[in-house]
Amino acid sequence: MADTDTPLIVLLGNDDDDDDHRVLFDGIRRSGGQPRRVHPDELVTEATAEGTRFLVGGRDLAPDLMFGWVYEDYLILGMNQLETARLAGIPVVNSAMTLLRGQSKYLNSALLHRAKVPHLPVLWGRDENTLAVWTAERGYPMVTKPLMSSRGRGMHRLTDEASVRDHVRTLGPGPEQYYVQPYVPARHRDTRVLCVNHRAVAAVERVAPQGTWISNAPGNTRHRADLTLELRAIAEQAAEAMDALFAGVDIAQDEHTGELCVYEVNTCPTCTATFRELGAEPVPLAELASFLVAAARDFDGARRDWRPSATF
């Protein structure tokens, strides 16, 4: 382990979100920690009856805390490594199960509904007739999403029974399933609330690009949003339901009823580019850095007592 006055914090991830990692690492250093990124392919693990060792480049790696930032292609490998670290007694922020919950829209929905977080009804499976009956009973339009995706990839609106049946027939072989929920008339926008240690620290409104209804699609525009008490409450409840110590909670407001609902919770949310576009410092990453250093020194104490020093 590193000197407890300068705890070693290892981010497990690749360089896809390099801008966010650089900002986070600067914040960790300012908060008194030593950051290091380790790619899942670099990490070697030895498990024996005497204990578990982690090595990078043939040298022992002894982190005071591991922070999981893995998704898509590296999700399963990273989950195994993070869970092994947790079993070896290393504190882990955004654990293996948290990251799986954040990637899987199925688990997102199951957990949000279980915790009574306002969320849309969903149906997932492969049976065509069941989906056709369900959508007809609830009314159109509907939205379908891939099990694991980001930035609006693979989302479609289903407008009638024919489009529902066509969608089911496009599913590939194997375990691919549909995931369908009602369309929310939200003026083609949503609000992402960033949370650290289950506490809201920033809110950004996202507006869909011209010609599309998908608010998180590439080319969207972003604006600072007021972090109202209602937004704060629903976001914090959602982050806690996922046990996500760093989370981006996507929330829509129905333009007809005014009601808020959570679309989903992202457990590897990027924010540096957004905040630069808004001409502001990435407050969520500064707060995350502060929390990670505190958690590396006293994990249980930080989870219990840490509070953000600033909000956006």
Automatic annotation (TrEMBL):
The keyword Nucleotide-binding applies. The keyword ATP-binding applies. It holds the Pfam family RimK. Keywords: ATP-binding, Nucleotide-binding. InterPro entries: ATP-grasp, ATP-grasp_RimK-type, ATP_grasp_subdomain_1. Residues 109-294 form the ATP-grasp domain. It comes from the Bacteria. This is ATP-grasp domain-containing protein. It comes from Streptomyces litchfieldiae.
